[in-house]
Amino acid sequence: MGDRDEELGIGDTSGLSDADWVEINKLRDAYRTGGQKALKDAWRELTDDPIRTVRVYGAFFPDKLRNTIKDVMAAEGMTVEDLKEMIEKAKSAAY
Q: How far apart are alpha carbons 70 and 4 in whole angstroms?
């Protein structure tokens, strides 16, 4: 993790693409120039791309995201084994 990551409050940069960093910089710039309201608006705009939103959110709040995913899975009666099985089936279907 570099100085830039700590400055932004990023806890996990693994898996971030260049496009994710563009969004992170937009969030940072929005906050710097417009405060909380601008940051909230920038987050709202980011949600137009749900996959990128999850990756960016996970960079800032990795533990919270992991715990939320686990809680939702548990509420749906899904286990880690179920998830692994779904991933394997998806991989098989892709080939």
A: 29
